[in-house]
Amino acid sequence: MSNNSNNQGRAYEYAWINTLFDALSSVRDIQIVHNSSWDANKRAWEEIEDEMRDILEMSANAAVDTILELEPLMAENDSDELILEFQQDGAGTQGDVRDIVIKRNSIEWEIGLSIKHNHEAVKHSRLSHGLDFGKEWFNVPCSNTYWETIKPIFDYLKDEKFKKTKWSELKDKEGDVYIPLLSAFIQEVNRAYTSDPTMPRKMVEYLIGTKDYYKVISRDGKRLTVIRTFNMHGSLNQPSKMKISAICVPVVELPTELVTLKFKTGSANTVEMYLNNGWQLSFRIHNASTAVEPSLKFDVQFIGMPISILNIECKWNNICAMERAGLMLREKKEFSEQPTQPIPVSSPPVVPQSQSASPDPDYTAVKVGTKVSHKLFGTGKVIRIDLKKKRIRVAFALNEKQFEFPPAFTEEFLKVQN
Description:
This protein has about 425 residues and is of the alpha+beta class. About 30% of the residues lie in helices and about 25% in strands. The chain is built from 9 helices and 21 strands. It has helices at about 5-25, 35-45, 50-70, 70-75, 135-140, 145-160, 175-195, 200-210, 405-410, and strands at about 30, 80-85, 100-105, 110-115, 125-130, 215-220, 225-230, 245-250, 260-265, 270-275, 280-285, 295-305, 310-315, 320, 330, 340-345, 370-375, 380-385, 390-395, 400-405, 415. Strands 1-2-3-4-6-7-13-14 form an 8-stranded mixed sheet, covered by helices on one side. The chain is elongated, with a radius of gyration of 25 Å.
């Protein structure tokens, strides 16, 4: 990852923790822990351009209300303090992939966010003559057979490195390196599964993390923020004393069986793994640099996930479109009311519009102080209009929101309150 991409990733984490603070500070006590990760992310934020800051803020603002809807305990004001903290570097090596940890000091509850900017990488691992992927991934050390098989391959790469050979100059890198190395990988994974039937679960936990969390992915080019729910242990989506979330997050079943592991059709450098319960992965091996090195990158991606992992798309006009696969919606009710009933995904719950709200075809009449309404956030007041950046900021009862201007009015996400 380039320094620029790394800076933007850290800055996006910084945008998210501050967006959460802004959204909740008016309704409850909240604290951001200042640690070394906070310092690093703040520096990254200060180093990026103003335009990129605006993009990252818009991305976080588009999805923050959905996170709050998913987690009623965040906004519950129960005379305690909500704590937001960046995860310390190195936690990922212990199986915790969360970037932001959110908890309350009066109850045994915490959730986490994994924040990704313009990528969905699972793991960037490596294969080399000395890296034991079996021990690292699923606690089954690689066999002597594996080490004996790959030794000639990496000895060959060491010799080519000494000659200062470029990868493009290798006569048959597929036949001499990729295919035999991946064949040894396939045999070793199958051997590990035979010796430890829990290998599929352990490997997926290594790849996605051992803690429950929401993965938040900003897709700047599509002006979209995606939320994915990784609720393996059932700790997400807990109700507060007064509210049950309108979105039901299912518990995700981890795999228990390895169905098949084989080369991807037509590929010499990628293998695909099919597990039960809807899990599918690809493993792509490739060189990490122009010059030959006795170490290869191993990019791991999910090509299929269980439908119980919800995929919620939040457009940057703050309206969220929830994918149909596995998604259930529940009416918002207090505990004192009747039990909630599922309602069709095609008819998500909306807050009724005020009788006095009506579309204003002439958005040029909108100015600072104009009262507007939004179908999710209710009534608010325009507090800033930036014609240069074509954005408008509205203060609602609980927090402030930024919209595109004039599309927010022409597409009727906002309506002038007469």
